[in-house]
Amino acid sequence: MQAAAKNQMTNLETIKGAIAAKIDSAAFTSWIAPLTFDINDNTLVLGAQNQFSADFINSVHAGTLADVAADFGLTVKVVVRNAVTRKAASIANDNNAQAYAPMAAVQSANVAFDAFVACADNEFVLSACKKIAAGAATFSPLFIYGAAGCGKTLLTECMMGATNARVVKMTGAQFVSEFTRSLKEHNIFAFKDFCRKCDMFILDDVQALSGKKASTEEFLQLVVDLRNAGKNVVLTANAAPNNLTGFDRHAQGLLASGLVVDVVVPNAHVKSVMLKRAGVKSDVADALAKRIANDGHQIAGIVNKFKAYAELMGCGVDMDVAQRLLADTLNTQKTPVAMVRDMCEKLAVSYDAVCGNGRSRALVLARQIMMVVLKEATQLSLSEIGNFVGGRDHATVLYAIKQIEKQKQVDLVLAAQIQQLVSECK
Question: How far apart are CA 135 and CA 148, in angstroms?
């Protein structure tokens, strides 16, 4: 009896090893390793901890499991472990608590796509969002990037308002927090189920995962699992995948494997329309649009200030009043230092790092991009440009410009990003 039991255990370990050889290591760790393995009447019985896990494994990995089982003369069946099985078998990372709810659940938005005022440059991203909201998209993940205030979050809310699909939406910071909490509370599998039990998963501000290795690995596996299951994934960030700092090349490649689209900041026409929709007089809106920063958040703040003034003072806002109310807001001519600081925010690097001696690939690329933008947007000499990015000399700036010009020939995303930065600095 002992010999037979030992032989069966050996066979199960061999089978498990054969499965591991045919499945991506992250997928194996997340889905296969936690299963119980047993052989009963020439059937390999795999016990999942809940019905969702069993259904997901059957839909995604059934073919691979059947092939491996056949090599050992077995059929395969994935079942849900009952209470007796769970008590008898101690599984690493198995959770006792089966319920999970986020600390701050994101409510479904009721925002129409008309709320997003699109200029010609944003028609492509708007069309992609409408396609994925209708459930007719053939691309996943949809990766939307752009500067703060350009409308990325608004587009995700529009998608939530336009779809009938089950949507799970989190911010990057919330994903890190909830993943960490689920580990501490020993309900990681329930957290996995919550994230996967949807038709569309939206993660706003992917850059918040930067440097969070465990959270990033869990998120990347989530993207793979959802895509393999035919679900839609929508991601937003402040930079294109290949410019995200704190992510390795594998992660950047996965994030860019669907459709990558950029959102440009509001131009004068878009800003004017947004102000008019809020009740600002046409002539005032047109005049202010040329002097307000290209930031949707700031425009919303201006609208709130106008509304508060009209309500409290009992009168409308003319141009004189508008200029007085916005004396601390209206654009003045940008200095080179202000341009560099703005670009640091858009490229997700710190100003101190750019002016320092760091030589990481992402930091060097950001520094070189800034040199090119300053050359095209200003009349500064190469030596002056070098002074504004940490005291680099003339030769260093010239080398950076040549390198970026070469990359622009083969990297259309980089070329478009630089063109956008130049237009914002002029």
Answer: 27
Per-residue confidence (pLDDT) for residue 83, from 0 to 100: 40
Structural domain includes residue 185 = yes
Question: Do 234 and 280 have their domain in common?
Answer: no
Here the CATH number for the domain that contains residue 247 is 3.40.50.300
The reply to whether 366 and 311 lie within a common domain is no
Q: Residues 161-206: pLDDT tens digits?
A: 899 889 999 999 999 999 998 888 888 888 998 999 999 999 999 9
Q: 95 lies in a domain?
A: no
First to last CA, the chain: 82
User: Residue 233 domain-assigned?
Assistant: yes
Helix ranges (DSSP H) in 119-236:
123-133, 152-162, 172-184, 188-196, 213-228
Structural domain containing residue 311? 268-296+307-325
In whole angstroms, give the CA distance from residue 118 to residue 216.
32
Is pLDDT of 420 > 80?
yes
261: Cβ contacts below 8 Å, ≥ 6 apart: 124, 125, 128, 142, 143, 144, 145
Domain count, the chain: 4
> Is the residue at 367 inside a domain?
yes
- The pLDDT tens digits for 41-77 are 889 999 887 777 788 788 788 888 999 889 888 999 9
* 133 and 221 both lie in a single domain: yes
Per-residue pLDDT at 264: 87
C-alpha 341/C-alpha 153 separation (Å) is 23
Cα separation, 264 vs 146, in Å, equals 6
Query: The tokens of 203 are what?
Result: 């993660």
Reported as a pLDDT band with limits 50, 70 and 90, residue 106 is: low
Q: Exposed (0-12), middle (13-18) or buried (19+): which is 332, by Cβ within 10 Å?
A: exposed
Q: How is the chain split among helix, strand and coil, in percent rounded to 5?
A: 60, 10, 30
CA distances from 351 to 72, 326, 380 (A): 60, 27, 20
Q: Are 143 and 256 in contact (CB under 8 A)?
A: yes
Whole-prediction pTM: 0.62
Average the pLDDT over 413-418 and give the result.
88
Q: Is the domain of 257 the same as that of 117?
A: yes
